[in-house]
Amino acid sequence: CSLCVRLSFLNFPVVVTVAYNKDPSPAKLNLGVGAYRTEEGKPLVLNVVRRAEQMLVNDSSRVKEYLPIVGLADFNKLSAKLILGADRLVYLHGTSPAIQENRVTTVQCLSGTGSLRVGAEFLARHYHQHTIYIPLPTWGNHTKVFGLAGLSVKTYRYYDPATRGLNFEGLLEDLRSAPSGAIVLLHACAHNPTGVDPTTHQWEQIRQLMRSKALLPFFDSAYQGFASGNLDADAESVRMFVRDGGECLVAQSFAKNMGLYGERVGALSIVCRTADVAGRVESQLKLVIRPMYSNPPIHGASIVSTILKDRTMFQEWTIELKAMADRIISMRQQLFDALRGRGTPGDWSHIIKQIGMFTFTGLNSEQVAFMRKEYHIYMTSDGRISMAGLSSRTVPHLADAIHAAVTR
Ligand code: PMP
Fold first, then answer.
1. 253 lines ligand 1 (CB under 6 A)
2. Which of the four pLDDT bands, split at 50, 70 and 90, describes residue 87?
3. What pTM was estimated for this model as a whole?
4. Exposure check for the chain: N or C terminus, fewer CB within 10 A?
5. Is 400 annotated in the active site?
């Protein structure tokens, strides 16, 4: 049908999964999924999440009343501390002057996507510049989220296929020629789909350029702690922009780092110049949210605040989070070693250099199609593979397939 024809051209992981589900081969491998899998290929619910849920169930004083429009107050406070830096909680390191000075407004939203959408709607209504620059390439939903909110979406150069790394000069050039005040979408860490992040030094140059042109940073933080295993390190890009006292927006997701995908837990924080502006921003955010979904769901946010509030549970979470990040990093090393072991032509060092859940392999759409047909390996046609979908058992099969695809 015409819809299927149109869908087949899209680079959606969901389309990849539909094709994967139909494949009867026992050797099939789905590397299109954007969710963590264990070494056994199973979805994971963190122990600390199970424990928090049990505590919530056992607490008979808990009711199912509506949350306020902006969500659960504790959740909002703790989420802002997690990404921006904490003040009093010793187990959340660092200090954010913006929080201390009450310059941050945080609203609970429907995971990362909902946080981006609420932020986009707010900007479309209240910000003077309606152009947003997103990296090329970026997560497929960005264009739609911002476009449908009424912003004009433009791209800035990001990925260089020749080096399989950052096109830093192109990025600077494009931001330099953006109109003053334009919004710029930045992936806080673990850029999706490329796995390529700027270095700290490059972030500093980006910050200086953006501040000198009054460009407004809108961070998408979908992988805090999931990239390096360290919550502070993965938030450093955001914190650099907060430390200079300027404005920024941050959309946070707890889908990956707490494994709460389907619970749809996230937060939008808007860092303002003064406490007075932050108060007015909150009023406007309520007017954006109210006609969209009235107020957010209670369960997932309660899990997150239970964990972040309690020092022991927080530490337990960081250990489980690091284990997920380490497994992904180990998959990178194993795949790299397997390709080197096979003498596969090409420089595959980008597999170990790239960060986060995804690797942009550099395989072209024909090679991707070949691997699907001959090896039953499924990935998006841009050659992006989810490292979380791999295991020590499946690495040799993938390495064989890549070797065959590039040598045929
Ligand atoms: N931003 C990026 C870059 C992502 O990769 C994702 C998840 N794939 C999201 C936002 C949103 O995810 P969610 O809405 O599930 O939190």
1. yes
2. low
3. 0.94
4. N
5. no
Is 61 within a domain? no
Q: Is the CB of residue 263 below 6 angstroms from any atom belonging to ligand 1?
A: no
The Cα–Cα gap between 4 and 19 comes to 12
**From the CB of 113, is ligand 1 less than 6 Å away?**
yes
For residue 354, the enclosing domain spans 11-44+324-407
Closest by alpha carbon to 32, among 372, 367, 274? 372
Confirm or reject: Cβ of 334 under 6 Å from ligand 1. Answer: no
> Of 283, 309, 335, which closes a domain?
309
Q: Do 216 and 77 share a structural domain?
A: yes
Q: Which of 174, 220, 234, 400 is catalytic?
A: 220
Average pLDDT, the chain: 93
Structure letter (DSSP) for residue 53: H
Give the active site residue among 139, 317, 348, 400: 139
pLDDT at 36: 95
Residues 347, 268 share a domain: no
Residue 166 has pLDDT above 70, yes or no: yes
CATH number at residue 166: 3.40.640.10
Residue 317 maps to a domain: no
Measured by CA distance, the residue closest to atom 1 of ligand 1 is 222
Nearest to 391 by CA among 44, 39, 35: 39
CATH number of 364's domain:
3.90.1150.10
309 within 8 A of 119, measured Cβ to Cβ: no
**Is 4 among the domain residues?**
no
Best mutation site among 79, 253, 304 for ligand 1 pocket (most ligand atoms within 8 Å of CB): 253
Q: Is 359 in the pocket of ligand 1 (CB under 6 A)?
A: no
- Closest ligand 1 atom to Cα of 261: 15
Number of domains the chain is built from? 2
The answer to whether residues 20 and 71 belong to one domain is no
Residues 6+ apart with CB under 8 A from 85: 92, 93, 94, 95, 96, 99, 232, 235, 239, 242
ipTM over 0.95: yes
- Nearest Cα to Cα of residue 358 among 9, 10, 11, 6: 11
